[in-house]
Amino acid sequence: MKTLSCIIVDDEPLARHGLKKYVEQIDFLDLKATCKNAMQANTILQEESIDLLFLDIEMPMLSGIEFLKTLKKAPAVIFATAYAKYALEGYEFDVIDYLLKPISFERFLQASNKAIRLLNHQTVASTDELFIFVKTDKQLVKLRVNDILYIESMQNYILFHTLNVKVISLVPMKKIFELLSKDDFIQIHKSYVVAKDKVESISGNQLSMNGVKLPISTRMRNEVVSSLTGSRLLKK
Prior knowledge:
Layout: E1 4-9, H1 13-24, E2 29-35, H2 38-47, E3 52-55, H3 64-70, E4 76-81, H4 87-91, E5 97-100, H5 105-122, E6 131-136, E7 139-144, E8 148-154, E9 157-162, E10 166-169, H6 173-179, E11 185-189, E12 192-195, E13 201-203, E14 206-209, E15 212-215, H7 221-230
Parallel strand pairs: 1-2, 1-3, 3-4, 4-5
Antiparallel strand pairs: 6-7, 8-9, 8-12, 9-10, 11-12, 13-14, 14-15
């Protein structure tokens, strides 16, 4: 079984101590550091490869959520906080779990098992098996990545066009694009991201998929054509 390198980030000494004791009981967790604020954690992330953060949210100077926004490529995250009000916002960052203090060892072990299962699975998962959660109308909706045809940016929200449904979300296009594999999706216009394997043809500055024609930015056209034909994903 893979060992997960992890750090604890919490401004409360007792919370850090309790989480440290929990981590020490789990064989597949390798604790690299305990940090009392986001800046200490940032230093660790610059120096070491970390798989998993146990991250508090309400901390001085920089909250856990604000800290995640500063990271270009964040490790996997399990939130450990006393505040349930951040749960929905937290899941926008694709966190593995959300633990509410006081945290029992049983609940901590459950979240850790989920982390090892998901992180081990990431190395072998195909697009057919992957999914993302998106926030829409005060709830989280699960979308299978392989069902997504294209994503359309519409002013302050985005629209997921899938094989079966359309889903509206307030999540920024940039954030969603970061979650998707660049091997499977490409941005063709400031307003459109498409699934490469769903593209049927390109004509001029338009591409066709599932009976829909979408515009290709003139600036992006060469990159789009090269990406699709070079990877042999353009259907004849």
